[in-house]
Specification:
Length: 484
RNA sequence: GGCGGCGUACCCAAGUGGUAAGGGAGAGGUCUGCAAAACCUCGAUGCAGCGGUUCGAAUCCGCUCGCCGCCUCCA
């Protein structure tokens, strides 16, 4: 298994600290507002990666935090006139709601900053004692020059950063790059008691504290959005390694951004689309597929078109799956006939599994893995086109279904039944007809067709079409689909 | 200014040395009462441009052009 490690800038063979186990920490969200699609990308991507580790038999401990105290939360609380902890609670709940819809599994551990104040204080105290941090008027700062490795993750040197001169200058700090570990609270702000007076943790320290407490001094993987590389993750390394004297993280993983008009989607630019509003227009599975169809480190340009394409892609998948299932429920024909050219279908299945794993093993290439799924789909369609029959053909197709289900389970897309997909479309496309009335019209049309009353049959078809339902006449029955 | 990334068909996108996956759109075909959908087939002699290394380059090196990100809160 190979993972691109931001620390080295290379793909490296993944060797976990303890054989067979993975300790993984993902930076979650600061809960001061609803999630946009960029947050969703990070969550979905690392969810798929986590599922793949599990599939590969690793015993994975997966932690994802909530930053539930910070300036933005305090500002939001003041703005909305509600207590800061209610702001946090509200958006944590909203996060769960959005992510569950997108098929993101809860982490094994979901620690919150405010639940680790004691641990944070212990680390800050330790850093002060070791001379890596200093106290000024109730604030505690980490002394960046005291940590020689500073800049190793983001690939920059201290002198260069100072030259940039975009750093806000706080005269009290010994070095402009020094960052807050502990911030004293003003009157009326949330505060916890500490050796330096009432205050709250700085942003970076919570992650160090939670990693240390729940996963250990050195963990296998730490992940998050690429915008966290500097300063957040750089600072985490500095404070953690200065404190423990041990390497903090073995593999750093960072996902790429979502862009709008080629610009990074962000709150400050105002060019963001919330998960909620996207899910009003698209089925969650379409969104998840859209996110996984591009490699996690590449940028994704956001617009309707690729989401609509993802819908078509799913339609194609479920059409084929339905066809496969139709074949499987049919009694196996007496005639043993595997069409010529398909004798080695089992070999194709074996190679599918191999290629799927190869793709995922290569830095979690979900885009390629999905490509392989469609190669298999094409193969299955060709096989069924050739009108196979008999027990062996049945076994081969049931094995194919099994293989597809396994891959689908890892990605958590292509994971429903064709009927569930159609029902979901009925809802998301806001079709005014329900299943029963559609079935009733189909039955009426069937009778018309039996009497060769083509005019009436065509009328019904046109009527359904106008309402967004397409009919598909198969031998002996008629299926309906939501037009997309 | 410093550091990093990207540029593959009409669109999206995988591919980091061995002769261009996959999806969407399009064209042709099969099926059909006719349709539609679906399915099958086709589709880049070519990977921003130029030069170099190599038996061999989208992949490595150099230069040029264009775009983006980080350096400040950010997934």
């Amino acid at each position: 298994m190979k993972i691109y490690n931001t620390l080295t800038g290379r793909k490296e063979t993944f060797v976990p600290l303890a054989a067979g186990s993975v300790n993984m920490y993902v930076c979650g969200v600061t809960v001061y507002d609803v999630c946009h699609i960029g947050h969703a990308r990070s969550a979905v991507v690392f969810d798929a990666i986590r599922r793949y580790f599990h599939y590969r038999g690793y015993n994975i401990r997966f932690a994802k935090n909530f930053t539930d105290i910070d300036d933005k939360i305090i500002n939001k609380a003041a703005h909305d006139g509600i207590p800061w902890d209610q702001v946090a609670e509200k958006y944590i709940n909203k996060y769960y709601e959005d992510m569950h819809r997108l098929g993101v599994q809860d982490a094994d551990l979901e620690p919150r900053a405010t639940g680790h104040i004691r641990e944070i204080i212990d680390i800050v105290k330790g850093l002060v004692e070791k001379g890596h941090a200093y106290v000024i008027e109730g604030d505690v700062y980490f002394s960046v020059p005291s940590f020689p490795g500073y800049g190793k993750l983001s690939g920059r040197r201290l002198e260069e950063m100072l030259a940039g001169a975009r750093v806000e200058v706080d005269e009290r700090k010994k070095n402009p790059m020094d960052f807050a570990l502990w911030k004293s609270s003003k009157e009326g702000e949330p505060a916890w008691e500490s050796p330096w007076g009432p205050g709250r943790p700085g942003w970076h320290i919570e992650c160090s504290a939670m990693v240390l407490k729940h996963l250990g001094e050195t963990i296998d993987i730490h992940a998050g959005g690429a915008d966290l590389i500097f300063p957040h993750h750089e600072n985490e390394i500095a404070q953690s390694e200065a404190y423990t004297g041990k390497p903090f993280v073995r593999y750093w993983m960072h996902n790429g951004f979502i862009t709008v008009n080629r610009e990074k989607m962000s709150k400050s630019l105002g060019n963001f689309f919330t998960v909620e509003e996207i899910l009003q227009r698209f089925d969650p599975e379409s969104v998840r597929l859209f996110l996984l169809q591009t490699h996690y480190r590449s940028p994704i340009e956001f617009s309707n078109e690729p989401l609509e394409e993802a819908e078509h892609t799913l339609e194609r998948f479920y059409q084929s799956l339905e066809r496969l299932e139709d074949f499987l429920i049919l009694p196996a024909g007496k005639l043993e006939s595997v069409p010529p050219g398909f004798e080695d279908e089992e070999g194709i299945l074996v190679s599918f599994k191999k290629r799927f794993m190869q793709a995922m093993d290569d830095d979690f290439n979900t885009a390629l893995a999905i490509g392989h799924i469609f190669e298999l789909i094409k193969e299955i369609n060709r096989f069924l086109d050739a009108k196979p029959s008999g027990a062996r053909a049945g076994e081969m197709m049931s094995r194919a279904k099994q293989e597809l289900a396994e891959a689908a389970n890892v990605l958590n897309v292509f994971n429903r039944t064709p009927a569930q997909w159609q029902r979901a479309l009925l809802q998301i496309k806001k079709i005014e007809l329900d299943e029963t009335s559609i079935e009733r019209l189909i039955e009426e049309r069937r009778q018309a067709r039996a009497q060769k009353d083509w005019k009436r049959a065509d009328e019904i078809r046109a009527e359904l079409d106008a309402k967004g339902i397409t009919l598909e006449d198969k031998t002996g029955s008629t299926a309906w689909r939501v037009k997309i």
